[in-house]
Every structure is written in structure tokens, then in C-alpha cells.
From TrEMBL:
Residues 222-505 form the CHAD domain. This is CHAD domain-containing protein. Transmembrane segments: none annotated. SMART domains: CHAD (SM00880), CYTH (SM01118). GO terms for molecular function: inorganic triphosphate phosphatase activity; metal ion binding. Gene3D superfamilies: CHAD domain, Hypothetical Protein Pfu-838710-001. Residues 1-207 form the CYTH domain. The lineage of its organism: Bacteria, Pseudomonadati, Pseudomonadota, Betaproteobacteria, Burkholderiales. It comes from the Bacteria. InterPro entries: CHAD_dom (IPR007899), CHAD_dom_sf (IPR038186), CYTH-like_dom_sf (IPR033469), CYTH_domain (IPR023577), YgiF (IPR039013). It comes from Massilia cellulosiltytica.
Length: 506
């Protein structure tokens, strides 16, 4: 299993990295340069790639190595992948070796392909100058540094490659995060969550960045609560980072899904808040990112959901066009802030710190004689879900439901209970649990519309300075939103009383 952190570097930073004191401090070998050509092969239908694997033939001088790699995961730049390799005679794949590798890594695919040949031409080619040297860290861990500078090519399409790989050869992979953070502090880098194979296939398929929703959390019934927490947090972090490309490309839905991933991560921490404390700098950076994403999302909702539903006359539509234009400018300004945030050194620091905290199990209680995080998840999950449900029940029974802010707090609690149920869905297949989840989703949507109306009124107030000549229409919009909220609140109060005041099990 290959285990490495990939860091994207700028054009000027590549040369600086070779001389970096951080990397030279623990060096036990001199940097060695080598040029190589990687050719990636697949079937005509890209069957390997559809199963998350890539076949590479690396040629360096007269030496050729065939590698089948894939599977695993990538979290905060840390890539864990199956890797099967062997030397071959030429730059053309050895079909017999490929069959053997495929049967070991993907036996089902090997059976379905039944000896089908690879396409004769490579899918894409990677031409790279690689500089490698070895590090020996104080704890005895050995790390190989590999600085790659080159380009990926598919026909006439090309994309530059400049990345630093830190691969652990023996020892705890969590140490790579600390090393990567020190590199980043000396020479700003970015986490590279996608492999060269992913980038190459994107060239081949002309794949565009797109929004990625959360995937189900995989849990083992015999896992401890601490182990389950690690899996949950990794799942949330993967969703956030899977949407980075889309966010940087300006995709609205990708921004929304990154925000969902962050909200799920915060909900997971809240779920064990009495047991786990985030380091203060990490918590502060999470709040910073949540604020940037939240402000941008509010404007997107205003444009996508609020303005199109206004009951306007034909005479009002020219004024609406001017208001909408001003709103789009505000929305784009906030999206640009998000792009700047995600592309900033602070974001990289956050992702490396969060990845290191998760990989290093920063929640472990070494001082406690009986660590509650060591209990089995099969026992802990019902308790956590029921605690989240009790919080919803308490707010539904004890808050003044005539107040919009109180209804919003009920909605937040209901959302956190829904997330908790989704985190542990692999452990519960009860129909009552499914019914409760659907109920919470419905209540969240209903209460969310009320909250959206109040948030939209705040945005309308901001637009008064942008388009003062449209004060009449803005006043009309505020009136419509206020009327909708007043109309929806009695029904929402009734549904909260009827549905959320009863006890709920796992």
C-alpha cells in the first residue's frame, strides 16, 4: 500500500524546495535527478479507470516498470493506494503481467474482461523530471521526497505538473502532515488531492469539475467510538476537498456541497463535544471558512430561489432586472472571496492541520483511566443519536416557537440529529429510524424556507445602497418575504409541536 502526501507547488517554489532547510535538515541522501516518461494504458472503454485504477508503464533510460495502482483514499492530500509493480522488457505493457496484476487487485473485473486486450495507444503521457532524496525523521520514520516537474499530454491538450510527493517508507503516515505543514510554513504550497492519473484522464475525457455529494460512511460494528469518529471526519473532509476544483472553477453547486461537507464535519464534532476538543487555532480556521462559505451561499439562494418566486407585474420586471444585476454582482463578489479563501495559504494550513489531527487521532485521552472513546460504536451510536434527538425535543418543548430565531434553533438541532443518523446509518436498518430521518429532512426544508425569508430580507437591506433608485421594488420584496414568513410560521409551529416533541429512539 503506497502512502504519500502530494503538494502542488508554484513555478518559482519548485527550485526553492530543493534548498529548503526543512527538507535538508533530515536528509540522509543527496538529491538525485532523473527524467522519465510515464505512459498510461487502458481498454478502449476505460474499464480500469471506471474501477478507480490506472496502469502505468514508467520508462527511465533502458528500464521499464509496469504498475497497476488505485483504490484506497485521498484525505487532506494523503493518498493511500494499492500498488502492484514489476519490471518489463519495453515501454509496451506486458499483457500476461497485466492479467496477473488485475486478478490480484480487481478479480471481478479480470473475470468480466476475460483476457480483453489493452488499447495499443496510451491514454495520455506524463513527461517528468524527478528529483528524489531520502529523509530520516527524529522518530525513526523514513520519508522519500520526490519533486516532479513536467507535463501531462493527451494529443494537443497539455497541463503542467509541479508537485512534491512525501512518501512514508516505514513509520506512521500521520507524521507526513507535520512535515508538510513545516514545508508549507517555509514555502507556501497547496494540497494536491487528485493524482496525475486523475488529471490525465480528465484531459482524455475533457471532464469538467462538478459538485460531489456526501458518500455513505462505512463503519464496522466492532469499531470503537474513536475509530468511528475518525471514519466520519474523514468522510466529511473528503466531501469538502472533492468540491475544491468546482469551487475554484466558480461552480455554485460545488460551493454548496463544500459547505455541506463542512457543516457535517462541525456536526460530527458537536456530537462528541463533551469528549473531544478541537485545538483552538483549528476551531478558529473552521469558523473562518464556514463564514466565507455561508455568506456566498446566502446570495446564491437569494438568486436561485427567492427572486424567481416573486409575484411581479410586467411593470416591475425592468426594476427587478436592475436589482437582480446588483445581486449577481454581490454573489460573484462573495464567490470570489471563497475562491480566494480556498486558494489561500490559510486554507492549506487548515486542511493539513485537520488531516493531521484526524490521522493522528488527536481526540485520544491519554490522561483518562477509562476512555469513553474506546467503547464499541454499536453501543455508543444509539446513545449519541438519542442525545441529539433529546436536544431537538427539548427545544421543541421549551422554546417560544412564535419567535423566528427559536424556530431556527429547532431547525439547527433537527439538522444535527439528521446528520447523526446518517453517520450511523450502516448500524441501523430500522423502519422507524428511516421514518424519523425523513421527518427531520421535511422539517428542515419547511423551517429552512422561513429562515431563507429572514436572511433574504437582510440581503435586500444591503441592496438598498447598491440600487437606491429601486427602493420601491425592494420595499415590495421585503413585504412579500415578511408575509410569506408570517404565513408559514403558524403551520411550522404546529408541525414542530406535533412531530418533534415526542421521544425518538435510534
Amino acid at each position: 500500500m503506497e502512502c504519500e502526501i502530494k503538494l502542488a507547488v508554484g513555478a518559482t517554489s519548485a527550485a526553492q524546495l530543493k534548498k529548503s532547510a526543512v527538507l535538508r535538515e533530515h536528509a540522509v541522501s543527496k538529491p538525485r535527478d532523473q527524467e522519465h516518461v510515464d505512459r498510461y494504458f487502458d481498454t478502449g472503454a476505460f474499464d480500469l479507470w471506471k474501477h478507480g485504477f490506472a496502469l502505468r508503464v514508467r520508462s527511465a533510460g533502458a528500464r521499464h516498470v509496469q504498475t497497476l495502482k488505485g483504490g484506497g483514499s485521498a484525505v487532506a492530500g494523503l493518498h493511500r493506494r494499492t500498488e502492484l509493480e514489476a519490471e518489463i522488457a519495453s515501454e509496451v505493457p506486458d499483457q500476461d503481467l497485466f492479467g496477473k496484476q488485475l486478478r490480484e487487485a480487481l478479480p471481478d473485473l479480470a473475470h468480466s474482461l476475460d483476457g480483453q486486450q489493452l488499447a495499443p495507444e496510451p491514454v495520455f503521457v506524463n513527461r517528468t523530471k524527478r528529483t528524489t532524496w531520502m529523509l530520516a525523521l527524529p522518530d525513526g520514520t523514513h520519508v522519500e521526497c520526490a519533486l516532479d516537474v513536467g507535463e501531462l499530454q493527451r494529443g494537443e491538450r497539455k497541463t503542467a505538473v509541479r508537485e512534491l510527493e512525501l512518501e512514508v517508507k516505514d513509520g506512521d503516515p500521520a507524521c507526513l502532515y507535520e512535515l508538510a505543514q513545516r514545508v508549507h510554513e517555509a514555502i507556501p504550497v497547496r494540497i494536491e488531492n487528485i493524482s496525475k492519473a486523475e488529471r490525465g484522464y480528465a484531459l482524455a475525457t475533457e471532464d469538467k469539475a462538478h459538485a460531489v455529494k456526501a458518500t455513505p460512511v462505512t463503519l464496522k460494528r466492532k469499531a470503537t467510538l474513536g475509530e468511528a469518529l475518525g471514519s466520519i471526519l474523514q468522510n466529511c473532509l473528503q466531501q469538502m476537498q472533492a468540491n475544491e476544483r468546482g469551487v475554484l472553477a466558480g461552480d455554485v453547486e460545488s460551493l454548496h456541497q463544500m459547505r455541506v461537507g463542512l457543516r457535517r464535519l462541525r456536526a460530527a464534532h458537536d456530537m462528541v463535544d463533551g469528549l473531544v476538543t478541537l485545538p483552538e487555532p483549528l476551531a478558529a480556521d473552521i469558523e473562518w471558512l464556514a463564514g466565507e462559505l455561508g455568506d456566498a451561499r446566502n446570495w446564491d439562494v437569494f438568486l436561485e430561489s427567492v427572486l424567481p418566486r416573486l409575484p411581479l407585474t410586467e411593470e416591475q420586471k425592468p426594476s427587478l432586472a436592475r436589482v437582480e444585476a446588483a445581486a449577481r454582482e454581490e454573489a460573484e463578489r462573495h464567490r470570489a472571496r471563497v475562491r480566494s479563501a480556498v486558494g489561500s495559504p490559510r486554507y492549506t494550513t487548515l486542511m493539513l492541520a485537520l488531516g493531521g489531527w484526524i490521522a493522528g487521532k488527536g481526540w485520544q485521552h491519554t490522561a483518562l483511566p477509562a476512555d469513553p472513546l474506546e467503547q464499541q460504536i454499536a453501543k455508543a451510536a444509539p446513545q449519541l443519536v438519542q442525545h441529539a434527538a433529546a436536544r431537538v425535543r427539548k427545544r421543541a418543548r421549551g422554546y417560544d416557537l412564535k419567535r423566528p430565531d427559536c424556530l431556527h434553533k429547532v431547525r439547527i438541532a433537527a439538522k444535527k440529529e439528521r446528520y447523526a443518523r446518517e453517520f450511523f446509518a450502516a448500524l441501523s436498518h430500522d423502519r422507524k429510524a428511516t421514518k424519523r430521518h425523513d421527518l427531520l429532512s421535511g422539517m428542515q426544508d419547511e423551517l429552512g424556507e422561513i429562515n431563507d425569508a429572514f436572511v433574504a430580507r437582510e440581503l435586500v437591506a444591503q441592496l438598498r445602497d447598491r440600487v437606491p433608485q429601486e427602493a420601491g421594488l425592494l420595499g415590495f420584496i421585503e413585504g412579500v418575504l415578511a408575509a410569506r414568513a408570517l404565513d408559514a410560521m403558524p403551520r411550522a409551529r404546529r408541525h414542530v409541536k406535533e412531530s418533534l416533541r415526542a421521544r425518538a429512539g435510534f
